[in-house]
Design a protein that fits this description.
It is a single chain. The chain is of the alpha/beta class. It folds into 2 domains: 204 residues, UDP-n-acetylglucosamine1-carboxyvinyl-transferase, Chain; 210 residues, UDP-n-acetylglucosamine1-carboxyvinyl-transferase, Chain (Alpha-beta prism), CATH 3.65.10. It is 29% helix and 27% strand. It contains 14 helices and 25 strands. Strands 18, 19, 20, 21 and 22 form a 5-stranded mixed β-sheet that branches. The radius of gyration is 21 Å and the shape is elongated.
Length: 428
């Protein structure tokens, strides 16, 4: 398995570029299942989950071309023939987003067989909300041998109220609704930018959608969709991770190709801590931390609140803030697995249920640590950037699921970081 070796102590200085959002790219790739025509997606990140999605679509009969470098991170998908509408376990076992093919497959061909998803073990992300919505739209769902099977002659519009806010559930049922007969009204929807990004692609394909990005979405079903070209949003979580990297190292970092409007909750908390975050351009932020940071409490919430996907990274920053920080995790019940690894590096953190209490500022020291999930991996990289000595991070394949060649990007702004192994070269 690949490892990162990081020697801390260097302030990050320069410009670092954000890739496209993995969590937008995955539903947009799934949306290509809804048409026989070609869908071209630009600003696709070169991460492991995208490669998994490519394999998944190809296994169903789609033609997928992934291009990087001069091809500007572009993918071309043509789902003219879907010969095998099954999301096989051996492909999707490492990726929760595999459930996103359920809605489009049922809408397009009237049948889907999807393995119950895997991915990061950060707590329950139940697929039951997807199932309830599809059943309201007329699908018959059965479960056996670890697979969900959905069948219908044609989906029908319905009034769907989500029991709890779900990003993938909103995206999945939105994709199902665009080809359903009649109107679908969905309430208590996720408002995340990734939902709006998916809706923008669907609209470009001919879907009739109102309210994406708000809690109520209305969809008028159409009989068919056509091909389209769409550029994926910048990754707000990668951008946020780089903002914290600049702050935690006391650097002077420009974060390029980001959307500051998607980072409001994080920027507000960093500003409260004493970090200087300045908007240089509509797609560019500058971060500097030239004074002792102050402790600030956070509580994760659905967008536009503080994102759960930034909780672990913020906790690493909190170890360097003067005072007591309380971190409350409201979204996932098992998202403190990075805590013990940070403690191994010298952090003073106590966990009580869904609340972690961080006492700082504490000097961190190098250690051998283990990455347990995607965002936990990012928090350990951030901690290692300020730790005394050389930290070794094992199981960085978690990082490769959502961050594009992060070691090269960080090295370009002054970090002492190297990879042992080959990117994407180790088994999961």
């Amino acid at each position: 398995m690949d490892k990162f070796v990081i020697r801390g102590g260097n302030p990050l200085v320069g410009t670092i570029r954000v890739s496209g959002a993995k969590n937008s790219a995955l539903p947009c790739m799934a949306a290509a299942l809804l048409t026989e025509e070609e869908v071209i997606l630009e600003n696709i990140p070169q991460v492991r989950d995208i490669e998994t999605e490519r394999k998944l679509l190809e296994s169903m009969g789609a033609a997928v071309q992934l291009g990087y470098g001069r091809a500007q991170h572009r993918t071309t998908i043509c789902c003219k023939t879907l010969s095998d509408p099954i999301a096989k376990y051996e492909i999707v076992k490492t990726m929760r987003a595999s459930s996103l093919v359920l809605g489009p497959l049922v809408a397009r061909v009237g049948m889907a067989r999807v393995a119950l998803p895997g991915g990061c073990a950060i707590g329950g992300r139940p697929i039951d909300l997807h199932i309830k919505g599809l059943e309201k739209m007329g699908a018959t769902i059965t479960q056996e041998h670890g697979y969900l099977e959905a069948r219908t002659e044609r989906l029908k519009g319905a009034h769907i109220v989500f029991d709890k806010i779900t990003v993938t559930g909103t995206e999945d049922l939105l994709m199902a609704a665009v080809l359903a007969d009649g109107e679908t009204v969905m309430e208590n929807c996720a408002c995340e930018p990734e939902v709006s990004d998916t809706a923008a692609l669907l609209t470009a394909m001919g879907a009739k959608i109102e309210g994406a990005g708000t809690s109520t979405i209305r969809v008028q079903g159409v009989t068919r969709l056509h091909g389209a070209r769409h550029r994926i949003n910048p990754d707000r979580i990668e951008a946020g991770t780089f903002l914290i990297a600049g702050a935690i190292t006391g650097g002077d970092l420009i974060v390029d190709n980001c959307n500051p409007e998607h980072l409001g909750a994080l920027i507000d908390k960093m500003t409260e801590m004493g970090v200087h975050v300045e908007t240089l351009a509509p797609d560019q932020l500058r971060v500097r931390a030239d004074a002792q940071l102050k402790a600030v409490d956070i509580s994760t919430e659905e967008y536009p609140g503080f994102p759960t996907d930034m909780q672990a990274q913020f906790m690493a920053l909190a170890t360097q803030a003067d005072g007591v920080t309380q971190v409350k995790e409201n979204i996932f019940e098992n998202r403190f697995m990075h805590v013990q690894e940070l403690v191994r590096m010298g952090a003073n953190i106590k966990v009580d249920g869904r609340v972690a209490t961080v006492r700082g500022a504490t000097p961190l020291s190098s250690a051998a640590v283990m990455c347990s999930d995607l965002r936990a991996s990012a928090s350990l990289v951030l901690a290692a950037l300020v730790a005394d000595g050389e930290t070794i991070l094992d199981r960085v394949y978690h990082m490769d699921r959502g961050y594009e060649r992060i070691e090269e990007k960080l090295r370009g702004v002054g970090a002492q970081i190297r990879r042992l192994g080959n990117v994407f070269g180790s088994a999961q």
